[in-house]
User: What shape does this take?
Amino acid sequence: MKAPVKGPALTPLERIIVPLDVPGQHEAIALIDALPEVAFWKVGLELFVSSGPAVLTALKERGKRIFLDLKLHDIPNTMAGACRAAGGYGVDLLTVHATAGEAALAAAQAGAAEGALAAGCEPPRVIAVTLLTSIGLESLSAELKVTMPVIDYAQHMAVLAKDSGLGGAVCSPHEAAILKAACGKDFWLVCPGVRPVWAQKGDQQRAMTPGNAVSAGADYLVIGRPITQADDPKRAIARICEEMTS
Ligand code: C5P
Assistant: This one.
């Protein structure tokens, strides 16, 4: 069997991204301050639409890394403009939909770099959403009229993203080994759908444990409820880190 392709060397704690799945800035800051050991936070659409960039400022003030999960999807000119603005916030990761196409993806990465340069910060790594996990084989063929299997489609979209200059993708840990082999170690894979053995699966149907996800090629793990809903979130983080090292 071929050895899995590995991405950046990171400690278990560095691999964990906790989503700020809360309705507003007040709740977000309470969560960030309750878990100072978490270095990387995800700001998604709900929080960004409700709070705007103020939550990003709060994270930057605390020296945190930011995954701005806006899943942008538009024509090249608009993508460039939105990514220019996002790049200026000094975020680390920014999502766009790969289905926006090559020109829009290239414009997104260029815009993000321009925005960061103008603001004097590091450019974000723009990463692609290959296919929403809410779209299964049936919706893919019946609604989107794509007849290839989900994994082949996800791989095709990841390769398109890479060829368009993007630096990674969001994917299921079940797709990580295939996407890593297809796109290489420098194409970062960020995986939600991660559940330690002791946690409830919730609505994540095809979850994988943190250790197995990393072994499969996941670089970063987006882990929400197993941490945020745990009786002892700090202990949950420690157990997840132990599991990754064992
Ligand atoms: O609580 P849980 O660990 O399921 O949180 C996972 C996070 O990753 C949530 O913010 C969810 O919206 C996000 N996500 C996901 N599946 C995807 C893309 C994003 O669970 N395919």
Q: What stands out?
A: The beta strands are 16-19, 40-44, 65-72, 93-97, 125-129, 168-170, 188-191, 220-222.
